[in-house]
Amino acid sequence: MRGSSGWWRRSPPCSPTRRAAAASDWSPYQRTDARPGIRSGKRAPLESWARMFPSPRLLLLVVVTCATGFGCTRTQPFFCGQPEDPRCPEGTACVEERCVSVDELPECALGQTRCGASCVDSRSNVAHCGACGQACADGQVCSRGRCTDACAAGLTACERDCVELESNTANCHTCETACGSLETCRTGTCACEPPLTECEGRCTNTESDGNHCGACSRACGPDGLCQDGECVTACAQDHRRCGQGCVDVRSDRFHCGTCGTACDSNQVCVGSRCVRVCSVGATDCDGVCSNLSTDARNCGACGNTCGAGQVCTNGRCACPSGQAECDGQCVDLRTNVQHCGACGRTCAQDETCTNSRCQCASPLVNCGDRCVDLASDTQNCGTCGRTCAQGLVCSGGLCALP
Question: What is the per-residue pLDDT for 97?
Answer without folding.
Answer: 59
